[in-house]
Amino acid sequence: MSLRQMEYFLTVVEEASFTRAAEALHVTQPALSHQIKALERTVGGALLERMPRGVRLTPMGRAFLPHAELAVRSASQARRAARAAAGAEGGELHIAALHSIAVGALPDVFARWRAAHPRVLLRLHEYATSEALEEAVQRGTADLAVGPEPVGTAGDVVPIGEEELVLVVPFDDRLAGRTTVTLPELADRAWIRCAMEPVVHGERFLDWACGRAGYRPRTAVWTEHTSTAVRMAAAGVGVCTAPAHVVRGAVGEDCVVLTPDPAWKRALTVYARVPPTGAAEAFVDLLRAAWPSLGAAASAVREYEECETSAARAG
Q1: Burial of 202 (C-beta count, 10 Å sphere; 0-12/13-18/19+)
Q2: Nearest partner of 24 among 13, 16, 15, 35, judged by Cα
Q3: Which helix (H) or strand (E) holds 217?
Q4: CA 156 to chain centre
Q5: For residue 44, what are the CA distances in angstroms to 7, 41, 61, 64, 237?
Q6: Do the Cβ atoms of 279 and 272 come closer than 8 Å?
Q7: To which H or E segment does residue 7 belong?
Q8: Hey, which end of the chain has fewer CB within 10 Å, N or C?
């Protein structure tokens, strides 16, 4: 079994066609079929079922797929790490992050990186939930991940600062002249909710927090992305809660930002399957230096740090 055979297998799965896979790999279709058959002989059974139109995975193929993905991606990571250790300035660095962090905090970091390392290509992988982010790192999709401290085994974990949740209202809101607000003051308001909302103690974070304040939030709109929820709130559809860096990075001065009393914060980290070296290590150093709240994570509110336990945990 060779790495090339696994790469061929993954391409056929991705393209769902031997013809398209051969074109993508720049090989002849007979050569591709020969390599797949050799792989199937090695593993002891059919991995792909040839259909009249395309192909599909067999049960054995479905079991083989995640391991092949990990092997191919790990090999790619190994090549990048070796180039970085040798001082090579070319190559790629793959960064995985929650969508909220990618849209709100990483643009400035990426700009600084490009200024210092113009020959290193950055590839950003965005995820809606912390679970998906952790799984991507374990499967070798990225060299580094930026998000809440991982629950599972993640290898090397480096604290970078904290993330603060804020409330967003339009300029003409009755609270627009305030800087802070307590949740009981918002008991009569409609909310913009987001599918990326974290879950704490088995409940979505806002349900849990408002429940502690004595009421259940009234939902006006459900959105898929945090940045959309912020835009909706800025337009006056309802109140929303979002990470502060998303509001300031994606919306700017188009809304009023209120700080909950008490504040909601959680620690953020950068982590990887193996200790970062070369370009990855340099990116970690830059991220720690650029993060605006570096070192403040120790003061995070404990209730918000507990937003790490359910399938919908997100940023």
Answers
A1: exposed
A2: 15
A3: none
A4: 17
A5: 18, 5, 11, 11, 59
A6: no
A7: helix 3-15
A8: N
